Amino acid sequence: MQTSSKRSIERRASGDNIWLSSSEDSSPAIHPTIGYPYTVCESEEVVGRAMLEDLVKYAAQKHGDITIVLLGGRGAQAMYRIISRLAETDEIDDLLGRLHVFTQDALAPMRMNNGLSFVRDFERLLGPNFFAKVKCFTPMLTETDDLGSALSAYLDKLRSLDGIDIFFMGFGPEENAASHLCYIKPGSGAKFDDLLGIIPISPTILEHHISKFKVGGSHISAEDEAECRSASYILTLGPAAILRSRMVVQSIVDASTAPGKIPSFRRFLDTELSSDRNELQRQCDENPGLLLRLHSNVRSYVLPDLIA
User: Fold this and answer.
1) Pick from 151, 173, 299: which is nearest to 237 by CA?
2) Is residue 4 part of a domain?
């Protein structure tokens, strides 16, 4: 798979995984933390309101446009429902008109209107008024015969802006109580400088992807599921995109339906981070969720079932 870009993009193979980075970018800052503050909310609706409040407060402190990365699946659905209602009025039109909106991961190749596509789910949850009012919406294009060129165009658009302001983030469970962020899998060889990855699909990610869409209420046809199960790749933003973002807003609201998140979150909290950058890189490759403990500005909202 070939990629080309207006800026210098380097392609690195790690086993069967491909990672893209830029020699023009400095290495992201690393801020290992001893603890990890998080807020336990009483309901998913409260989580959604808190996430939106973070966006509104951030917008009030910044002049000009704002770049955000949407979270797929269950985690941000409550916030999206609130935004959808507000977008039917003019209450947040000024905010929406400043937003550059990106997706963070995808399965490919797959039709963009597949019921298991994040784009279709965002359209369902956020509604047509949201997409009509935001400054731009840039998804990862998965319905193409030239995936490399599509990813290069996506990266060019993302890197042409003034960095990611808010990265809305979830937390996925993996074997041995490890975890994934976006779709950065354990052992995929991602490094701190990597912007985007192209990863062969795995049964664990595939089942997690399908189940979270079903639990979230998406309408999925048999044709949609069959196409999704035949996807070859996971496309995902990489560690550099997360670590360079100005703020991460995390939500974990589905431990009752994805109980694997409970031991994964406990391991995430209990892991002692190395002070050696190379060893820290190894720890994050083994358990990518730890990347959030290297970011200096994270808001994390969880439900009681995660820590019960």
Assistant:
1) 151
2) no
* Residue 114 identity (one-letter amino acid): N
> 3-state class of 28 per DSSP?
coil
Single pTM value for the model: 0.93
Q: Which residues pair with 80 in a beta bridge?
A: none
How far CA 112 is from CA of 40, 82, 118, 167, 234, in Å, comes to 35, 24, 8, 22, 14
pLDDT digits (tens, 9 = 90+) for 185-230: 999 999 999 999 999 988 777 887 888 788 777 788 999 999 999 9
Domain count, the chain: 1
Give the model confidence (pLDDT) of 108-140 as tens digits.
999 999 989 989 889 999 999 999 999 999 999
Cβ distance 55 to 68 under 8 Å? yes
Would you say residue 44 lies in a domain? yes
Q: Which of 154, 142, 145, 137 is nearest to 20 (CA)?
A: 154
Strands 196-200 and 233-237: antiparallel
Which domain CATH number covers 300? 3.40.50.1360
Residues 253 and 258: their CA atoms lie apart, in Å, by 9
Distance between CA atoms of residues 164 and 101, nearest Å: 10
The dihedral sign for the CA sequence 48, 94, 123, 170? negative
Residue 274 lies in a domain: yes
Of 7, 237, 6, 4, the residue nearest 138 (C-alpha)? 237
pLDDT tens column, 135-192: 999 999 999 888 888 888 899 999 899 899 999 999 999 999 999 999 999 999 999 9
**How is residue 187 written in tokens?**
């052992």
- Torsion sign across C-alpha atoms 201, 205, 209, 214: positive
SS3 content of the chain, % helix, strand, coil (to 5): 40, 20, 40
Distances (CA, A) of 11 to 152, 182, 214: 11, 20, 35
